[in-house]
Structure formats: structure tokens, C-alpha cells
Write a structure and sequence with these properties.
With 223 residues, the protein is mostly helical. The chain folds into 2 domains: 2-126, no CATH class; 143-223, no CATH class. Helix content is 49%, strand content 6%. The protein has 11 helices and 3 strands. The protein has helices at residues 2-16, 21-24, 35-42, 44-47, 50-59, 64-75, 80-89, 101-117, 128-138, 192-199, 212-221; strands spanning 171-175, 180-182, 186-190. A 3-stranded mixed beta sheet has the order 2-1-3. A hairpin with a 4-residue loop joins β1 (171-175) and β2. α3 (35-42) runs antiparallel to α8 and α9 runs parallel beside α10 (192-199). The chain starts with a helix and ends with a helix.
Length: 223
């Protein structure tokens, strides 16, 4: 799995090196965050020591989301070239999110990579195996320990929905460009790189998806 993670981080770093200053300050798929904010968050585990992480978490009473917002706002002011270099230099770093393992690390990287790249129409290569692994991960319940630090937008004990709250009950989700599907019921179909952000709770245009499942889930999923 580490070779897949490392290859993805290097490919993402190469793609991000092409963004202009205006693109770095545009909108990302993460509500309220710019691409620079997302990259600061994505590289946070490689730049902040465990001691500083715990101190920051305690400062916010254990609220990881508030702490990560602070870090993103602060460190997004660093030169983006430096943050891209951190991502590239950390390609082989075995960090993984609490309770997520290496699949969680890959999911973190791919989802946030698309948070930056998708609004910019920046299509870098994400191997089919990496994409299907992450799609399967977000549509499966998270096995988290009681003391794991979980972001507030992740539903650790999700039932009938993705880890990020997208409704899946009675829905069969299919990636039309990959050998992947999940669930049973009305069809919701689209490209993998469009489906993944949607399933991760991002606002993706309805017209990118086909099937009877679109009309079923959209009134519930609309945010």
C-alpha cells in the first residue's frame, strides 16, 4: 500500500506545482477553504510534531476540526512551493490517521487532492486501484477506537450512508470508468473522480451523474 500512497503523493505534487497564485487563492471543494488551506491541512501530519499536535488539540478541548482549521488558516500563508515540496518529500512517510491505517492515509490524500484539483479542472493520474480502494473505504463503516481523534465530518458508525453522511440506503453506486460499484438499489453512476467527492460530502453538480438513484438521493443529500 505504501508504494501506491507514495506514487499518488508524487503525482499530486507534480500537478499542484502547475497552479497559479490566483488558483491557490480560489475556492476548493472544502467549504470555506482555498487550495492553499487544503494543502496546509494535507501536509499537517508531516510538519507538526506529535507533541505540538496534542497541545493544539487540548487548546480546543479535543475538537480536531477547530484545531485543523487554525492550522490551515495559519500555514496556508506559507509559500505554496514549500508546501508542495513537503508533500513530495513526504511521499514515503508511513503516517496514517487514527483508526484509518494506510487505507485511511490513501483516502485522506486522494480526497483532499481532488478537493484542490477538481474545481481547477486539474486532472492528474490517479491509478484505478487507488481510486477503487478509496471509494470502497468511504462506503464502508469506520472501525474506530473510543479514543481515536475523528474529524466532525466523518460518521464513524455510519449506517446506510458513507463515512461523510451521503445517503446510500437503497442505492447502487457505480463508477462508469472503473470496475467498481457498491450497494443495492437504484443506480447512481458517474466517473470515479466525480463520485468520490460527492460521496465525501462535497457539492458536485447533479448533471454529472446518471441513473434513477440521482432523483432518490438528491433531495436528501442536497446541502
Amino acid at each position: 500500500m505504501m508504494d501506491v500512497i507514495a506514487a499518488h503523493r508524487r503525482a499530486l505534487a507534480d500537478a499542484l506545482s502547475e497552479l497559479t497564485p490566483d488558483q491557490w487563492r480560489a475556492d476548493s471543494l472544502c467549504a470555506g477553504w482555498t487550495p492553499a488551506d487544503v494543502l496546509a491541512h494535507l501536509t499537517m501530519p508531516f510538519r507538526i510534531s506529535g507533541e505540538d499536535f496534542m497541545a493544539g488539540l487540548q487548546r480546543y478541548g479535543g475538537d480536531f476540526t477547530r484545531f485543523s482549521d487554525e492550522v490551515a488558516a495559519r500555514d496556508s500563508q506559507l509559500p505554496t512551493a514549500d508546501l508542495v515540496a513537503v508533500l513530495r518529500d513526504s511521499a514515503d512517510n508511513p503516517w496514517s490517521p487514527p483508526g484509518g491505517g494506510l487505507i485511511g492515509a490513501l483516502s485522506h490524500d486522494v480526497i483532499h487532492g481532488l478537493d484542490i484539483a477538481w474545481p481547477q479542472s486539474l486532472e492528474y493520474d490517479i491509478p484505478a486501484g487507488a481510486m477503487t480502494t478509496v471509494l470502497s473505504s468511504v462506503t464502508s463503516p469506520l472501525e474506530a477506537a473510543a479514543d481515536d481523534v475523528i474529524a466532525t465530518d466523518v460518521h464513524a458508525a455510519a449506517s446506510g450512508e458513507t463515512l461523510f453522511g451521503f445517503p446510500l440506503s437503497g442505492i447502487r453506486v457505480t463508477a462508469i470508468d472503473l470496475d467498481w460499484s457498491a450497494g443495492q438499489g437504484a443506480q447512481l453512476a458517474g466517473r470515479g473522480r466525480d463520485l468520490l467527492p460527492l460521496l465525501a460530502g462535497r457539492q458536485i453538480p447533479r448533471e454529472l451523474f446518471d441513473g434513477d438513484g440521482v432523483a432518490v438521493v438528491w433531495p436528501v443529500a442536497a446541502r
